[in-house]
Amino acid sequence: MTQHTAEEMDAAREAAQKAVETATSWDYSAGETKVADKLREGLDAAGVTVDEDEFERLVTEIDSLTAGEIGGPPTVRNATPR
């Protein structure tokens, strides 16, 4: 397993958070599948990954926002550089 510095991990979380923000603002009528696709695309472009549980949580929370619930984009708890 590759060890990453605290700075690399922070940068990965920041990059993942930007992908979440993009997926959140992309299209409020997109639905969970499109949100998941857009989030995965953003994470890939940023060169970061989140584990499957984190990914599913983010997609669910983003989809909740698109359904009209009040709040901002979900916060990425953990991400790693690729």
What would you say this structure looks like, in words?
By secondary structure, the protein is mainly alpha-helical. It has one domain. Helices cover 63% and strands 5% of the residues. It has three helices and two strands, in the order ααβαβ. The protein has a two-stranded antiparallel sheet with strand order 1-2. Helix 1 runs antiparallel to helix 2 and helix 2 packs across helix 3. The protein starts with 5 loop residues before the first helix and ends with a strand.
Number of strands: 2
Class by alpha and beta content? mainly alpha
Can you tell me the number of structural domains? Answer: 1
Mean pLDDT: 87
Would you identify the regions where 5 or more consecutive residues have pLDDT less than 50?
A: none
- From the N-terminal CA to the C-terminal CA, the straight-line distance is 12 Å
Largest sheet: 2 strands, antiparallel
List the SSEs and their pairings.
Elements: H1 6-26, H2 31-46, E1 48-49, H3 52-66, E2 80-81
Antiparallel strand pairs: 1-2
Please give a quick description of this structure:
It contains three helices and two strands; from the N terminus they run ααβαβ. It has 82 residues and is mainly alpha-helical.
Keywords:
single chain, 82 residues, mainly alpha, two-stranded antiparallel sheet, elongated
